[in-house]
Write a structure and sequence with these properties.
six-stranded antiparallel beta sheet; 38-stranded mixed beta sheet; about 45% strand; 56 strands; single chain; Pectin_lyas_fold; Elongation Factor Tu (Ef-tu), domain 3; mainly beta
Amino acid sequence: MTVLDATGQPVGDKYEYGPFVVPASESTLWLDELEEQTTTAGSVVARPTVYAVNGQDGEVTITAAGLGAYVKPNTGVPKTDLAAAVQTSLGKADDALPATEKGADDGVAELVDGKVPAAQTDMAAIAAAPELSAAIADGLAVFSLGDATENDTDRINTALTACRLAGGGVVYGKPGADYKIDDTLIIGAGTLLDLGASDLTLLPGSNCQMVTNYSDRVPVGTATDAAVTSGSAVVTTSLASVAAVGMTVYVDGAGSNGYGELIGLVGSVDTGAGTITLHKLHGTTIPAVASATVSGANIQLSNVDADVHIRIRNAKRGANGPDSGVARGSAIAGHSIFLRGVRQYSVEVQRATSTAGISFIWPTNASHGTVRLWDADVHRTGVQVVGPIFDLRLYARGRCTDDLVNLCGNVYRDQTNTSGDVVGVTIEDIVNSGTTNGSALKINPCQGNFVDGVVVEGRIGGVRNGGAASRITIMEDIVEEETTGGTCGSIDLGVIDFPASSSGVLGFGGVAIRSLKAHVIGRTVHPVRINPGDGNTTPPVIESVDLALDFTGDIGEGVQLLNYATIGTLKLRVKSFTPSADRSFLRMNSANARVRHLILDTPQITVGRATTVGLVRLTAGTVDRVSFIDPNIVWPVTTNGCVCVLLEGATVGGILFRDGEVALGDSVVRANSGAVSTVRFDGFRHNAGQRLLHSGLATVVHLDAARRIDCTQYALYPQSAAVALTIRGTGAESSGSNSTGNVLLNTNGAASVPYSLGIRGDASVFGKAAGAMMWNTNASLACGAGPVISDGTSWKNLYSGATYTP
């Protein structure tokens, strides 16, 4: 519940809320909330710390329906005026303390720092919640649940309600107890539900959430009259009359390009005009501006619950549904732990099980939180994170029938009543121990939303249990319009390590990504697939991909660019690769795929098995540039097909080998079909391989300051006399063991023309064109050995003037 000062503005303490300063109108509201529980003076336990004026303690007369007038003494509320159930709970809390920790009980619930103490003691003495005891002040309500019963719903909710109305507290379970509920537990601000040593079981047939937060379950108000214009943060609604700064506003259909909710905080209110101006969410950079125009829309006005903490040893949902619905939000009851409109929150579940329902942990419209699911065996999704989300730390381990972790801006319409951006998610680890369908991690920003700042500190890995592969997918879902499209900013997936039974570690489709980084330990058939899949036809546009690849064992295609993909820079840092059954390290075979710059950065590859299809196989699509930077590649043999780049139909702007060395193998570049504009070797050495370039395509070849080229055949090998190579550059020192002694160009070079004196070879083999020049090494020609230039008909020695006409 929002905490207001005497002027109606939010105030904050260490929890950003409190002490509570309550207008008289709200005092009656709070007491009326408890009318169904009690109508005696005992119901003042709901709010015994109400201040008189501007937060000053004093005697207050409180009136509520069914209660009459009750005078709160200046000295405190006598415990005998508290509800009987509360007195019993306080007694149990006292009994649970060591005798040395018990203080004298004066029989009065005193005012202490704006809180109501459950007992005269120090929170630090309660060992059941050691992690929180140092973080909260003395004076919070503390409840020990004791032994479990056949149905513990009411008494747990009674304790949670008392904590909420007292301004905060702790409800903790008895170690080993299995508490059973048939309705949702409702937790409020400043409260810890500590079942860290206890179990929580949802009774059969309950078909509801297990835990949710109060401010979303009990909104300040709802209406069906909201109007807002796309691009605006001003909402017109009758709820302006009850709105206060800091409350949360939800407007259906005004967000996510019209497929979700506009969500923001109340920044200001004009009651005369009946308008609310929205402000961005707490501590975030997420704007609160409509992306669709609506009128007569559903609107909800809620407070924000700060400091909500849930710890459960074993959460058991069983076969409780629902699994699906029709209208938007109709299946929300299928989520086990559902938090909406919270900040400074944490959820920690040691073990979660279910055979029905939808998502086990579901934070949404939440900021500054931690979610840890230590061991899951659940139906559908383990952790579903739905925007708006800001600053989340996450850990998940377990198995499920769908995605283990899903970060998304929206989901299927029946599962949610919230949508927005997801910004700032730190993932400690994701360990998949048997997902049968779906992904270990799925990122789906969805219509009009943005996912940014996702960082994996540890690893994503584990095993799979049949069905779809364990993998990471960044992909739209085309089942509903709500889940298509969207944009990702910076995604750093850390270390990805899946076993050999997996396939397709990375999958992409239909989502624009600004920057993606990962270290992939490949033990799989096809470690990286850049492929829409699932029926997607929208190209994933990715500005930058930076992958460190460490492949072990027999690998199929290490990286596949399939179907539709448009990538700005694809940077691959490779440590090892052993191809299985004639597979390439990278294959691009879609006419719709395009990579502006493919970079193999310092690839250190000892190829474990000969192949006939090359390391980089380009059979279709377009690559503007291919760069091997300082490679160190060693082939096992010189067999045909052991090539670094195999061009078989793609269109390539340029291929560059800069520095480094390739040993053995067939050709460094083999261009059979397609098109390539330039092939450049710069400071590069080919050691004991057959050829530098084997080309069936006309292209420009640059030999620039290359180190020694030792080829067993020819450095440049046109497949036929019709292949025209334009040879430029400063040249290269070449040697070889072929029978002709011309180690640079084979006898098919009639159409290949040199344009540099650094090109050394037999002038009789080269084509001649006006302006062509080279260094002739065949002294038997009429022009003699030395620098020669062509007028298109003859070669002329620049020293002697002697000419040679072929």
